[in-house]
Amino acid sequence: MECVFELPLKLILSGHGYRISKKDGLLVIVKPDGLKKEFSIGNVSMVLANVRGLSISGDALRLMLRHGVSLVLVSNNKPIGKIQPMMLKTNVKLKKMQIRAQDSELGLKIARSIVLNKILNQVRVLKKLIKARHITQQRIALKIDEKIQEILSIYRTVSTEEAYVKSWLISKEAESAKHYWEAVSEILPKELGFNGRKKKYENPEDPVNHSLNYLYTLLMYQVWYAIELSGLDPFIGYLHEDSNRRPSLVMDLMEEFRQPIVDLPLITYFIKCKDVRALHNDKRLADSFRKELLQLFFNTLEKRVTFMNRAAPVKTHIRLQPIRLAKYLLGISNSYKCYDVVV
């Protein structure tokens, strides 16, 4: 089943056998069955192609690049390439300050704030699930509360430790995540087969981990795009190790949004739906279920929330966070606050 999803400023192609062409100022998406959809280039900022069998005309590609529209190619839910305009706005001073902060107390401070915020967001998600009465058995509720207390103990350790390094922060983040996912495994219906967090390379066989991996990939695109708009370098981060293959700042800022934007909506969905038919026999996400995940994800992005005294859709706060970080690095702002709205 092939799908074309039209979302604000982004086009996501999922399935196989698409052609992209140009008609005047329009991008034309042609599906394998011959059906066409036309999109005004002025309303598109990115085309994300998670497809097998894609062709694009030179005219369409030139139209996209002239209007600053990037083409991201995805395979197995991982980005494998990106075509973007040659000339991107660069703030030289910002990049210098971004690099300088890596080896300074400021960079460590940013790294610790990311870890502390993620730990508290995990607690917020678990408390939210208890408050929403998704946990009806007293035995499970007590287990969740025990896990919350262990996570909070790690939070207190990280927040009070004065002599800390990045590797120690990462170890504490992993320790907290272990307790968090153990709690989630208690909450989710047993028929889903979720026994703990598994990344794609660990070959998970349950629909929850497959869904998490897919939605985290979508979240990465959102954060990456926001970072590029801000003028920050996606590959210069403060918590995750630098790598030519992985954008460390993208991974850093993703941590702020994993729990509120992916975990809570997805866990709530599986509690209500118990959808064990989300996978094909070959353990891939079913296309029909992938469409449901996309709807869940982008509905969450459209939710209006108040953060930093500003009421706006979640997607707007994602775009604003790198700008806020840039202002902090440049000394325009005195502090940087990680996203902490779990609703």
- State the CATH architecture of the largest domain: Up-down Bundle
Number of domains: 2
Strand content: 15-25%
The rounded Rg comes to: 21 Å
What about the largest sheet? 7 strands, mixed
The CATH homologous superfamily of the largest domain is termed: CRISPR-associated endonuclease Cas1, C-terminal domain
Helix share bin: 40-55%
Q: Uncertain spans, ≥5 residues at pLDDT below 50?
A: none
Oligomeric grouping of the chains? single chain
CATH class of the largest domain: Mainly Alpha
Q: Name the structural class.
A: alpha+beta
Distance between the termini: 33 Å
Number of strands: 9
Mean pLDDT score: 89
Specify the overall morphology.
globular
Order of helices and strands: EEEEEHEEHHHHHHHHEEH
Helical stretch count?
10
SSE blueprint:
Blueprint: E1 3-7, E2 9-23, E3 26-30, E4 36-40, E5 44-56, H1 58-66, E6 70-75, E7 78-83, H2 92-102, H3 105-131, H4 138-160, H5 166-187, H6 207-230, H7 248-254, H8 258-273, H9 287-302, E8 304-307, E9 310-313, H10 314-329
Parallel strand pairs: 2-5, 5-6
Antiparallel strand pairs: 1-2, 2-3, 3-4, 6-7, 8-9
Keyphrases for this structure?
343 residues, alpha+beta, Ribosomal Protein L15, Chain: K, domain 2, Four Helix Bundle (Hemerythrin (Met), subunit A), 2 domains, seven-stranded mixed β-sheet, two-stranded antiparallel ribbon, 10 helices, 9 strands, 18% strand, globular
